[in-house]
Amino acid sequence: MIASLLFNAPCVIGAFETGYLLAEYPKDITKVQPWYKWNNERDKDLGLTYRLTPQDSKAMSEAPNFQTMYDILRERSFIFNDLIDEEYCEKPYQIIDKTPRYITSKHFEKVIDKTPGVPIIAVHKSFEKLKESWAKRNNILSRQLYDETFDNVWQMKQKYPRRILIVQEEQFMKDPNAVMEDVFHHVGLEWKSEYLQMTGLLKKVSNNSALTEYVKRLKFQAGKHSNFHLPRK
Prior knowledge:
Layout: H1 2-6, E1 12-13, H2 35-40, H3 54-61, H4 66-76, H5 78-81, E2 94-95, H6 108-114, E3 120-124, H7 127-136, H8 143-159, E4 164-168, H9 169-174, H10 176-186, H11 199-204, H12 209-216
Parallel strand pairs: 1-2, 3-4
């Protein structure tokens, strides 16, 4: 939900999940599954996915660094080239890379090192709610994994205080406007309360009926949980 709300801002977009920073180098992105597969699927009903061609992915994997790789992604993916954004923004120039697995202890500091200066948002959700969410997908969340993941998130917050913002999901559900104002400020954007109804993102996808229906389902509803989930190892 946090990422989807960020997509409302002018000149900003991203996919439901990206995953590329789990690779050691751009040449390794083909090994990052299932994200590589997801990003290359081209079904129009998939929602906000990159829908890359084999040629697109090949060009990205040959990039010398991740910054260049993301530049290639921006040039080639349809979601950067088929949107109706503000007049001053020919196409989005900021990418929101939402991937829950990034915050696991194995990956988090490596992701931080690969993205110098980039603001990071981590969402904290209670163990009980995450465990329930995992169970709905026939997965089991252990208390050990939960504790080691979020203990490491707090350690990284202490080490990189200006780069990392930790959002408490419970507070977000109680007062989304206040929380999102902090989130948008953290990444250098301006928050508008109307974004809770996905007004900015609906405008961007208004020329695509399938994406419009997808985005309508993302509208914030008080009392319902966000779609954030702690990933499996």
